[in-house]
Design brief:
23 strands; D-Maltodextrin-Binding Protein, domain 2; alpha+beta; 4 domains; single chain; 4-stranded antiparallel β-sheet; signal; transport; 15 helices; globular; Peptide/Ni-bd
Amino acid sequence: MSKKKIRMTLLVTIFLLVLSACSSASVMEGRKVNKNKQELTFLSNFPSETLDPHLNYTPVRAGVAETLVKINEELELEPWLAEEWKTEDNGQSWVFRIRDNVTFQNGKKVNAKAVKSSLERNIKVSEAIKNSLKIQSLTAEGQILTIKTEQPLPHLPSELVHPNTAIIDVSKSNFDQRPIGTGPFQVVSFDANSKLELERYDAYWDGRARLDRAILTFNEDANARTLALQSGDADIVYRPAIESIESLKSDKTIVTNVVPSLRTHLLMYNTSKESLADQNVRKAFDALIDRKEVVESIMAGQATIASGPFLSDFPFAPASEEEPFGLHIAKKHLEAAGYEIENGKANKDGKPLSLNLLTYSYRPELPLIAQLLQSNAKKLGITINIQQVDNIDEYLAKNEHWDLATYSMITSPRGDASFFLNSTYMPGGAINPGQIQNDKLINVISELNLAVEEEKRNEIAKQAIITIDKETLHSFLVHPNNFVAYKDYVDGWITSKSEYYTLTNELGVREK
């Protein structure tokens, strides 16, 4: 290269560095202005195609909408829009008293009639909520809402914690773009899967929010989320890159929170497929997943090994041992299912075992887990074709042509086993794409649904989980930690175990 070209290249490089420095200065100056205005930007990995609270969690996470009941960090139920509730017939008729000082973000008073209308619309548009609430009738008088269910439902209040039961003004339309809720923030604008702009609702019933404005953005790339925090483009980042946690901890301008989550990464089986209807085949795949390697190598230590759907210290989690791992164990189960390994292929009746495995990228560890399973299966002559999809729930709802799927879900969002068991194993459950139909398990869960005393409920839940483990209806892999990083001037942030509550009226910017 000529000296002239070298000189020109250096000039261009210097210019870009100066421009970058100016840009960074501009960003930091912008942050100062934002701090004075009490504005924060939150960046997450949760995509949002709609703001309809009855179909999406984002409005509750963003402080736009609220539910009748909420859950605290000790996994105890607390009043929210309902200040109290009671039942006198073991859970078939429930009386909720709605707070008297609540208004929607358009100024309309929230009374029992408005709540009734919201719930009616809720069960109309969401089959999952309809199946979980089992509402037979709703009666409203003043601030008193009476819910009668199709059968006794002792855990109904915990079902009303679900973000999709959020209360909104259904006399208005445009739910997917600008729902009218009761929270501390109201919607300014929404760009699907990209950006949500919010402003404070000054008449919020539980105290005026500290923030004037808030912006929620989305990026499925964990490294991009980390860089956004470091550059000042975001103030709070949910799930930065796992490998960046230690370096973020060494940055004095950044605070990192790591807490155990209520989430479980698992492997789903499509039991409508002939091969996976055989529990021996499912047990073979279960033995092919080295959970210790997943925790140490894929999760960088930010997870614990799962021996079931729930954290081991929960009162409804039965005592269990770590799942055995190894090719020799998997081989024995395949042989029990009638497979022979010949010429490097697992065959049964002359047909090789070849399966399609779904995964998705906005939880970046899941594709890596899929690759680990693919590699180990290949050693036994099993072919696994990995297919990455954009929206796993939408794909599973519309397609039956899949065999396995890596999946992640909050299994105990309300401190109770019933949500997971009902939604995953009962007929009509919202999270049963694998078409699991186990009569013994259905009977146990039905008994759980009628039980009132907590101790009895816990014992019945343990029976259900033992059955799930014995039949290997799912393979539970790890419980990932929740981790959030944010700038040191952010004040009032709480990293929620439930992942339900993000922007609150207590969140603000610390004064220096």
